[in-house]
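Input/output pair, single chain:
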Amino acid sequence: MAQFGTLIWTIHIMLVLESIGSCIACGRAEYRIGDECCPMCSPGNRVHRHCTEFTSTSCVPCVDSTFLDEPNGLIKCKVCTNCDPGLGLMVKQPCTPSSDTVCGTLEGFYCLDPTKDGCRAAQRHRSCKPGQYISHTGTTSTDTVCSDCPGKTYSDGSLTSCQQHTECEFLEIKPGTPWSDSECGVASLPIVGIIAGVLMCFFLIATIAGVCLFIMIKRQMVRREIVRTRPNSDPQIPTQVCLEIYEYISSHCTTLCFLLTDILIYWASFPDRDYA
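Output:
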């Protein structure tokens, strides 16, 4: 009976010792499989076969867009991250067996979910509305900042500063807005000047022609009176002079019209003149 009690006690002690042994932690470069502490595989490699009491861990490299970036006891490598252009991402650093892909932001995007070296999700920079200008250009980490254009300036939303409205010299067809420039037209006063110049030119010619015709008729009447009262006389009335004046004025009509028109246009080209 005493021997049986001793056997039970011995078995109990062995179980306790085994339990204590299983609770002892493995080294920093080891991982536990059952009762064994196996050496870890280096970064870029995975476990092919676990160690035994008589053999060490068997490791193989990660392949086919997989990686492990730390010493490990894993039998499968991690799948490399995909930089999805639909999320505004691009490959900044490609995946290797010992490191994951590092994603960056596409042009025109900024990062919403940054990581230590890259980004997990991005968003397109905002577009400024017409009437606003870009006060701060967007970066890979910040969004675009828009501001409203102040008075008498405009922007279509793509400018980094608002532009001054054009000051129309003569005629403003459409006033400027915060999103569009003023629209200017040709002043109507020069057109009036041209018409007035042409009319004055023809009026001048008509006046000269009328005066010449009157002189010619008058002198013809005088000549007839002289012939009637003095039959033997032959007076020479210088009507040719009037005809020469008329022909000269007529031949220079175009020059006179342009001269008068230029004078009237110049006079009308001052926007501050009081035409009333």
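The domain at 132-185 is CATH 2.10.50.10 (Tumor Necrosis Factor Receptor, subunit A; domain 2). The longest strand covers residues 45-49.
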